[in-house]
Amino acid sequence: MNEPKANQGGSIQRPAPGSAPVGCPVHDLRAKLRSAGLRPTRQRVALGWLLFSKGDRHVSAEKLLEEAQASRVPVSLATIYNCLHQFTEAGLLREIAVDGSKAYFDTNVSQHAHFLIESSNTLIDIPQVEIDMSRLPEPPKGTRIDRVDVVIRLKG
User: Fold this and answer.
1) Strand ranges for 92-144 from DSSP E
2) Which helix (H) or strand (E) holds 5?
């Protein structure tokens, strides 16, 4: 329930009837989904909470399934893949293809590169300022560069 707030003059301001609490994480997530053109279904909200409530991170569909099961979110791996791809298409996630069969989803959608520690399959962000993108080759005629994914593989 929304609590009344005192303004600078000390008088009480009551929230508008039916308005959501300011700063409510679930309300903010629903708004984020709506602004991206996605209907905030129960499953999208639950998976979005698991994805976005822990800050910037890289997650595989299998890891998200483990987290969902641990949080007692009833969801299948197929639903998770569908949701991850919908979030990616809406611009909420960035898909990082590591191998033909392995993909990670990054909650940090800004332009940046990654280190991949191969022994643990761990991705680490590299700030964009550290990689010189000014010397990219010209794309073929009639095309444009959409984005550049750089994954630097490390052995540990």
Assistant:
1) 94-99, 102-106, 113-117, 122-126
2) strand 5-6
Rounded to whole angstroms, the Cα distance separating 104 from 93 reads 10
Q: pTM of this prediction?
A: 0.75
Intra-chain end-to-end CA distance of the chain, in Å: 51
Q: In 10 A of CB 19, how many CB atoms?
A: 10
Residues 21-64 pLDDT 10s: 456 778 889 999 999 999 999 999 999 999 999 889 999 999 99
For the chain, the residue count is 156
Q: What does each C-alpha distance from 21 to 7, 24, 88 come to in angstroms?
A: 16, 6, 28
Q: What are phi and psi of 85, to 5 degrees?
A: -70, -35
The residue among 110, 122, 105 whose CA lies nearest residue 52 is 105
CA distance 86 to 81: 9
